[in-house]
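Quick one, tokens below. Sequence please?
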């Protein structure tokens, strides 16, 4: 039913302006160069090893810093939270050339010392060499450990070696009708901002005490946005981008889309993994 927002392979981006294309290409090139250097220096953990850690990880107690809550206008919120919007990048070789390529998703820091959150399906990839993260200052860090993961809620908690992050605080559950904001990297458009509201809570998954009720929002996102923080007006995390579901006029055809439902893991799913 839901289409997971898997990694984006860098391609030509015809919808971007020339300046945006140039910025994206430069950032992507720096990212590939930086991660490949980490690989050459044996500073990374193979993706297959991270995947095995993910299968065994259950939960990890993490102390989350508390910060005062203020209400920000959208522009101020963007400037405040952009440095805490991580690029989670997988490096791989396509088999058709000798060059490294990258596929990017999104994540956000929970602590200053390198602990961050992203989607389970982002961490679960096996068709690549390694994972690394890029912070808002362009610094690149290898992902070295999976601390916790839950496939049903599509949440994973990982550690980036040597990182010094600006963590985002976790907020309370967002009510239907409340404003939400997303900063992410859809289709190579790095640090794309969108605003919407909480539209619905729907679609319970899991079993026992670990059931997750999906938060559905109207803020735009797409492939490459996986793992992005869903923020309230105070810049607090109230959820995590997970997947989309396109509703067709005719269920037997795929060329008459009417709307897109955007499913997010609620903040409670993140809290469960770090208690």
């Amino acid at each position: 039913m839901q289409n997971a927002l898997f990694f984006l392979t860098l391609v030509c981006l015809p919808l971007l302006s020339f300046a945006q294309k140039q910025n994206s290409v430069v950032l992507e090139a720096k990212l590939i160069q930086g991660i490949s250097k980490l690989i050459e220096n044996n500073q990374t953990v193979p993706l297959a090893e991270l995947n095995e850690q993910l299968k065994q990880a259950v939960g990890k107690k993490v102390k989350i810093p508390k910060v005062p809550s203020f209400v920000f206008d959208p522009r101020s919120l963007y400037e405040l939270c952009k440095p805490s919007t991580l690029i989670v990048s997988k490096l791989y070789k396509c088999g058709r050339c000798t060059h490294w390529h990258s596929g990017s998703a999104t994540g956000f820091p929970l602590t200053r010392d390198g602990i961050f959150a992203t989607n389970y399906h982002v961490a679960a990839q096996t068709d690549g060499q390694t994972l690394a993260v890029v912070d808002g200052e362009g610094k690149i860090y290898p992902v070295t450990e999976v601390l916790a993961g839950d496939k049903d809620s599509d949440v994973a908690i990982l550690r980036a070696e040597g990182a010094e992050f600006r963590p985002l605080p976790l907020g309370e559950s967002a009510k239907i009708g409340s404003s939400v904001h997303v900063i992410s990297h859809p289709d190579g458009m790095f640090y794309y901002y969108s605003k919407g509201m909480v539209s619905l809570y729907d679609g319970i998954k899991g079993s026992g005490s670990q059931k997750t009720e999906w938060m559905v929002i109207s803020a735009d996102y797409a492939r490459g946005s996986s793992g992005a923080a869903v923020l309230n007006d105070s810049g607090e995390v109230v959820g995590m981008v997970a997947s989309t579901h396109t509703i067709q006029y005719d269920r037997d055809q795929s060329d008459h889309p009417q709307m897109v439902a955007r499913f997010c893991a609620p903040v409670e799913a993140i809290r469960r993994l770090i208690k």
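The chain has five helices and 14 strands. The longest strand covers residues 192-205.
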